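Handout, section B. The chain below has 397 residues.
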Amino acid sequence: MKTVNILLAAAFLLAVGFVVGTTVNSDGEAAASSPETTYAEAFPTSDRQDAPTGDGQDDPSESRSNAITRAVARVSAAVVGINVIEIREYRDPFFSDDPFFRWFFGDRSFREPVKGLGSGFIISSDGYIVTNDHVAGNATEITVTTTNGDRLKAELVGSDPFTDIALLKVDGKDLPYLTLGDSEGIIVGEWAIAFGNPFGLFEINDKPTVTVGVISSRGMNLGRIENRYYRDMIETDAAINGGNSGGPLANSRGEVIGVNTLIFTGGQSTTFVGYGFAVPINKVKIVVAELRKNGKVVRDVYAGFEAQPVDRRIARYFGMARAEGIIVTDVDRGGPAAKAGIKTGDIILSVNKQRINGVDDFEVYLLDSKAGDVWEMELLREKKVLTLSMTIGRRSS
């Protein structure tokens, strides 16, 4: 009987050891439970409410998939991160500003490689990529990172500082690419989705950062910044930060409606504080087509007159309620302005219903036009408002 009891005890211990052994892995550690199991053990079902499954089978309105998530899925694969190296020239301010020191020590300048980053998006299956000129226009080395982790060397096909748009090319085929929408058809208040590489975050997981807002305004004329002119910009409250430049701004259908370019900081910060601006995609279409064809955008347009701003003194002399527009000071004989009937002393108030606030405004509008474009110009002559049509000419070489 004693022998039987010993055998029964041994069998019991073996059974317990087998059960315990099944819960221990080969390294002697307890097998990990799933997150759901761990959570359920800590918070029993009787003490919590299960969230909706979100599969949308019982109630489609409960599905988490919506126009935004579908657009993000459609766009993300064709967004790229861009890293560049450009050579910048610096001058010693102590020596370069004084001709005496330059005489003895020469022009003490030095060149230094500088790293930069930005965003871009693929527009063709064979590897053409759109970005900003201020991202890659002066680069000596360009590396593009795709969402599948590939690091590709890119060449600069061409760049247009005026519109701040550049076109790159990588070797590839059957690449994902984006559909370019119609920026003329955008609606203030509709969804706007910004994609990009803010602060280099693309490099962490090879995926673009996505922010969502609305179209806040359109037709924003921001004037000249360095050698770039920002006219007719799209304004959005979707967050755009350093590194987002060159990325796509898309609508809820996954169509690109602009190229993220600028942020408004109010002079208080170098990061997003409320509003960003994008170059409208209809303008980009024209620029990249010419960049692919010629490697540059030729602006040889010609209006055939000279002008100066209307100040308060001039406005008062002509009986104007406020200073606005530009006053024609000279007209070229036989030029487009002369043919249109414009005379010295005319005050140009608007072009194609776009108000002209100064000479810079006019020059931007002119350089953004093409030879053969027809302008409807509203002008003031002898205290009467007239409307004239002028066909833009081509400046001879």
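Note. The first strand starts at residue 79 and ends at 91. Compare this with the example in section A.
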